[in-house]
Specification:
The chain is of the alpha+beta class and about 300 residues long. It contains eight helices and four strands; from the N terminus they run H-H-H-H-H-H-E-E-E-H-E-H.
Length: about 300
Amino acid sequence: MVQMHKRFTDRQIRELVERYLREEIDRRYIQEVLGIGKTRFFAHIHAYRHSPHEFSIQYQRKTKTRTIPLPVEDSILRELQVEKDMIENPDIPLRHYNDSYVRDLLREKYDQKVSVSTIIGRAKKHGFSMKKPPKAAHDREALTNYIGEIIQHDSSSHLFSPPAKEKWYLITSLDDFSRFLLYATLVQEETAWAHIRALQTVVLKYGAPFLYYVDSRSIFRFVQGRDSLWRKHYLLTDEADPQWKQVKDIFYLREERTVDSFRRIFLHNLQFKANKVTPRKRVMFRIYPRLISMSL
């Protein structure tokens, strides 16, 4: 549709209409100049005859722009409040709002379709936004030139699933060059054997790297005089400088997506089948997330 109010003024249109009514200009010529059809032309003629002094082609908007229904607004604010409560919980590894997750949740839970930009706008308006923290300068950084040169390995303990009310350990192995997550698993208890299994899985599936780095946490350190009674070690891990200072940043990204998956899982009315069990005998089940030994 031709937007006449952007091309002509009210005075110009009024003059053409008056000349048409005086039979000075042919209708087809005016339609060609204005770029409109016969129906719209006579609609303007009728409006001018009805009220010549109030005639105008300027567009008058009847409804507000950029508005969404009130139920949708309430759903956005409700889910953003849940996000805020989780971010403020120091045990949950969330550092910023996940607007894309809120959009998907509104579509799945409420059957409401909203754009991410709308959610961001409502978050800023109602105080659900956070400024990006300044990046800390790294005094040391491992520089790699090819895939498999360095694999960074670490673990982190957080409340990945708030309904579980229990912290889990996330054990990961990351290729430093490609930033590819080679190994990720959630365990209830961190042990040396869990890290050995992680190393075994990575090496058997992807091969042995040139270097395998861990940080200075106690579970990765060999302490002279405590861990060995007969062998003398000269190069101890607790004396070496940590080579990688960016592991936590990567963990936060992965942990946030993990929390998005498990944050609101509740179990109701489950039925289990146990084979070869004596009737009426008490059986204990253990439920764990299907993130064990998962490659991303």
